[in-house]
Design brief:
The protein is mainly beta and about 220 residues long. Helices cover about 10% and strands about 35% of the residues. The longest helix has 13 residues. The structure holds coenzyme A.
């Protein structure tokens, strides 16, 4: 299914600020000069029909917080930076954020609540499960399959057609030429599994952004 950009991604949003359920006492402080609105209780004070995008780098924590946000009635915002290049027939799941300078090849399918960080490429026909994180400068080549909650480290490369199981982690600057089993970690060039499996820690800063559609500045 070709879910076109104009259909899925508003170009204008009014960015209200951050929710931080892990630190509701930060209310009144700012982050990147935007207000921290509080924890989940802040939703009672905010307008209805809010959209959110998640700013957490750990796939598992993304899954937890995004699931909770949706349970509380927030709508996922699918955000694509204006200079990203999306080929035809790219399918982007709700809540996925695509950063500056990203290139996505034809027929790639990106799951829900993924981060495709800046300057990354996702090759043709690649399949990314929900909550995957592709770090800056990484390259996911054509026909690669990533399970849910896979983390690809910065500038890492996944060779064409390889499969990475759910919850696996590929370290920064690694080059993966084999498949990875669910939950495995791998590092190096070429990448080899190492144990115990490593997990990306939850980022200590703000996990959830609140965004309301309407007049405002461009992203
Ligand atoms: C793979 C990773 C998750 C492992 O993290 P960790 O468990 O904290 O690993 P450590 O720092 O304890 O390192 C363990 C060993 O692996 C080595 N190592 C860690 N990451 C490596 C990498 N990417 N490539 C090669 N070797 C690596 C370390 O040098 C260390 O070796 P040693 O035991 O001989 O000293 C982490 O190093 C990594 O690559 N994270 C991705 C970071 C990233 O891309 N962030 C995106 C920010 S937007």
């Amino acid at each position: 299914m070709d879910r076109g950009r104009s259909e899925r991604h508003p170009s204008i949003v009014d960015f209200l600020g951050f929710l931080d359920p892990a630190a509701p006492t930060k209310i009144g402080q700012t982050h990147y000069d935007r207000p921290i609105l509080g924890g989940w209780e802040a939703l009672q004070r905010l307008p209805r029909q809010l959209h959110f995008a998640c700013g957490i780098g750990s796939p598992e924590v993304r899954r937890k917080e995004c699931t909770e946000a949706e349970r509380r009635g927030l709508q996922p915002a699918t955000l694509v930076f204006p200079n990203a290049v999306l080929a035809r027939h790219v399918d982007i799941g709700e809540g996925t954020v695509i950063g500056v300078g990203v290139v996505v090849g034809p027929c790639a399918r990106l799951g829900r609540h993924c981060v495709i960080n800046h300057q990354t490429t996702v090759g043709h026909d690649a399949r990314l499960g929900d909550f995957c994180v592709v770090s800056p400068g990484a390259r996911v080549l054509g026909n690669v399959v990533l399970g849910e909650c896979v983390f690809i480290g910065t500038t890492a490369t996944v060779f064409q057609g390889r499969c990475i199981g759910a919850g696996a982690t590929l370290g920064a600057n690694s080059f993966l030429i084999s498949d990875l089993k669910p939950g495995q970690s791998a590092i190096g060039v070429p990448a080899s599994p190492f144990s115990p499996p490593r997990k990306i820690p939850a980022t200590p800063h703000i996990p959830v952004e609140s965004i309301e559609q309407g007049p405002g500045g461009e992203l």
